[in-house]
Design goal:
38% of the residues lie in helices and 28% in strands. By secondary structure, it is α+β, with helices and mostly antiparallel strands.
Amino acid sequence: MAAAQEYEITGLTPSDFDEWSALFHAYIDFYKSVLPDDQYKKTFERILETREGLDAVVMRETEGDKKMVGLAHFFPQQSPWSEKKFLFLNGRYYQECFSKPRSNIHVFFSALMSIAIGFSNRCSSPSNSV
């Protein structure tokens, strides 16, 4: 019996554009929408620069070519209900959801939630300027 594939959650690096772009295109296609081609590059640059707080994590296989199989975009939001910011998750996509065991999806979203909680704790800190 083959060993189960393992995954890791990482941030993005400049060399990730092609893989990230393919996943983000699939996400946009899933919603039957279209973005101008230059918007993918602009969004990726905003993520790398964390401009306006936009950030992302990706899920990768830990062995072989370490294929990127999932992504999530998130950013802090203000609320009229509180001075604290909250984390808005946007653009969660898991490419393999129909061809791999559903447990992989749970791994991705569980890890994402852990990262999101840590990020939102930083956002709500009074000394944080995010």
